[in-house]
Amino acid sequence: MNENIGDRAEYQIRDEMEGDAGQLVELFVQLGYPASQEELSSRLTALRGSEDYAVRVAEQDGKLIGMIAFHRERALLQPTCEVRVMALVVAEQERGSGIGSRLLVEAEEWAREQNASYMRLNSGIREERSKAHVFYMSHDYNSGSIGFSKKLLTDHEQQSANKNNSSKSE
After folding, report:
1. Quick check: 85 and 70 in contact, CB under 8 A?
2. Is the pLDDT score of 82 beyond 80?
3. What is the largest CA-CA distance in the chain?
4. Which of 31, 61, 85, 90 could lock onto 66 through a cystine, CB 3.0 to 4.6 A?
5. Got the DSSP string for 101-151?
6. Which enzyme class, named as a word (predicted)?
């Protein structure tokens, strides 16, 4: 699956594999989700262990320049599954080169193999995401819902909050 990008060197799309986390850390920073190499490696290992998840990377001359992560969701509202894109990022210097389009096509092909009825993704409504929105709309994705989220405290965060509150009341 090599692609030629005009004057640019060829790149290949492949499955993410153990050892990629070190290079993916920088892409996650560019996406706005910094993580340590160890943390990211642990997350990727967990995804690799499930047939419902897939992560593809774009590699050029041994350097990772893009990635997409997606997963199959069992659907309740229609008879077939859906596939949700969890993350899509292309290195800043490679944006506009077609790599993001090729990664999205990879996910869509996988979704068709799963007999999915929909591809879904979320993209923040912040100004820095406006180019991403244009990108998705140019690939026939529609903005069809409003997303809501709520930060839940992990057990560790809750214990820390309780400890801080009890020390303030003393």
Report:
1. yes
2. yes
3. 67
4. 90
5. HHHHHHHHHHHHHTT-SEEEE----SGGGHHHHHHHHHTT----------P
6. transferase
Contacts of 119 (CB under 8 A, 6+ apart): 82, 83, 84, 85, 107, 108, 111, 141
Tell me the pLDDT tens digit for each residue of 31-66.
989 999 999 999 999 999 999 999 999 999 999 999
Counting beta carbons within 10 angstroms of the beta carbon of residue 125, is it exposed (0 to 12), middle (13 to 18) or buried (19 or more)? exposed
Q: Please report, as a single letter, which amino acid is at residue 157.
A: E
> From CA 51, how far away is CA 100, in angstroms rounded?
23
Cβ–Cβ under 8 Å, residues 56 and 68: yes
C-alpha to C-alpha distance for 109 and 1, rounded to whole angstroms = 13
Q: Could you tell me which residues are beta bridge partners of residue 15?
A: 56
Options 2.40.50.140, 3.40.430.10, 3.40.630.30, 3.90.1150.10; which CATH number does 2-168 get? 3.40.630.30
Residue type, 5: I
Answer whether 3's CB lies under 8 Å from 98's CB: yes
- CA gap 12, 57 in Å, rounded: 8
